[in-house]
Here is the input.
Amino acid sequence: MIAGLGGIMTAALAAPAAAYLLLKPRSQKQGDFVPAADLSQLTIGKPEEVVFHRTRVDGWRVLNEKSTAWVVRKDDQNVVAFTPQCTHLACAYHWEEKDAKFFCPCHNSVFAIDGKVVSGPAPRPLDRYVTKIDQGKVLISSEIQLG
Amino acid sequence: MKMLRGVIDWLEERTGIESAIHHFLYEDVPASAGWHQVLGSVALFAFLTQVFTGILLALNYAPTPGEAYNSLRYIVTEVTGGQMIRGLHHWGASLMIIVVVLHMAQTFLWGAYKKPREATWMVGALLLLLTLAYGLTGYLLPWDNRAYWATTVTVHISALPPGAGPYVLRLLGSDGGSIGAVTFARFYAAHVLLLPPLTFLLIAIHVYLVRRHGVTPIEVDATLPKKKFYPEQVFKDTVATFAWFAILVIMAIAVRVPLGHVADPTDTSFIPRPEWYFLFLFQFVKLFNGPLEVVGAVVIPTLAILVLFLVPFIDRGKVLRIRERTGAIAVIVLGVLGWSALTARAIQTTPPSTESPDAGFAQVEPWQQVPPDQLAAIGAFRKDNCATCHVLGGSGAGPDLTRAASQRPADWLLQHFKQPAPNVATQLKGPELRGLLNFVTKRNDVAVKAWTGAPVAAVEGAMVYQANQCGACHKLNGAGMETGPPLNGVADHHNREWIEGHFADPVKFSPGSTMPPFKLSSHDLDRLTNYLMEIPK
Here is the structure.
């Protein structure tokens, strides 16, 4: 009986505590699509590092901050915008012009132009921002799709 | 099982923990011990619950003014279970005070503070003060109007002692009596860094003393065999704790803890009141005026605390049966009567709050933040069906105006507004044309969000506001002049009758007002009043 009542009380405290710490907060603020580049300024098959401002929700704060993306124009209607961190340990990677590959200097992960892992310790292809094209502008959302 | 035994034996040999637990559980208690000894255990559990929920709150809380409010709002509106955790902490504080006071009252009635238990009583009295100190310091932490203004009063009371006042203020980080970042830091640090270790220390001493002297026996205990603490007394303690906890959980689920508007030092309409357990003191201080105020606010409470400490030395008679302790019963009855009368009077004399206790939960929609000229321009845009060609967020015959502000010259735009297509003329008038021009060339981001979602009634209200040029004297959502009072949050200060009546006869409702009377149609009056009442602070 003592253990039973103690157990109920422990569970009644532990359950909301677990939800409080482990479940994703329901955010009432959402980042919208923001224009990041002109489609006409991108060359097909040549990644460009694009700097744009986006709204990011950080707990109770909504920040408008500078962000970057590696944008690859695939054809007239399609672009891919990779998030600028390596999927291994989140170092900044860059485009190696001579090898035509993305290269991460931290642990030598190498990614192809479509984001797939070529070599190195990266566990998955590069992550992407959700994008859309509207009236010749590349719009980037704050939503990220894991690679 | 054998392996578990082995682990326990290993631990016992190195730490002696098993025999310590055994010693703790199989302590002798008098035969008369029972349900009336459970309150101490409940108080201990109440404190541990506060520590647990307090730590959880701190994991999502930013202890600086302003940020504190936003982070708490985040906890109660966005974090899963956040409202429950805050409920447990808030109502737990109130229920803990009730248990601690009942525990002391009972000890007092039974005369359980008599030799050799004087020190146990005095440590208990210190624990009561610490419990109240938690209430006082924790009250500021939500940083809403209630927290800010009630703490302002507390800080000013602490400045009353002649000579010591300025130093007390400095200690509270409040030079000059204002409440700012330093005061906040002091209250927060006291609440989470200073008071908890002190409480743990005093609880340890208190429990040690209770164990050293044992539970106070009564006469018959001398003739009866002693009982063991476990399982009988532990069972009763657990049942009582469970009952207390059940009440707490029900309150945390059923009664939402208030959260008002963020603290506003310029708000002159807010009427501060302390938490319910301090209301009696608040009312008591009112009995003393002018130079005597310090007597009611500082001298008498200090003396009362001193008397509470010295109870074991004031009442030095022999231990008596509870029924014969008429003096103690009289003190408790008088105390309860006095407390109830003062608290009831304080509640009676509290005018209705100018602010909803749930003001902080309301989600502010984009249209509620847009300056009235821009909201009225949205009305002008809708009035002449501009969206037929300019599809918002989509493609139509004309450009999507949510995408970017118009770069066309003003003359072209004005002509376009009057005659958007050959043989098509609009009904837009001068101020509407200018408002629309301003809007499509300079609209802000929030206005773009409000464009599709603003309710028709609110937009019409903003159009009435613009047509009557209210902005020539009043500021609303950052636009307009400041000759008259700002109108954000006007519903916090005035009711509907006041606002409606004020348009027709300003001087009647606000003596000395220089505002001219406005004769509005009942439709316009309704729309304008609704609109103004929905714009938050």
In short: The first helix of chain B runs from residue 2 to 15.
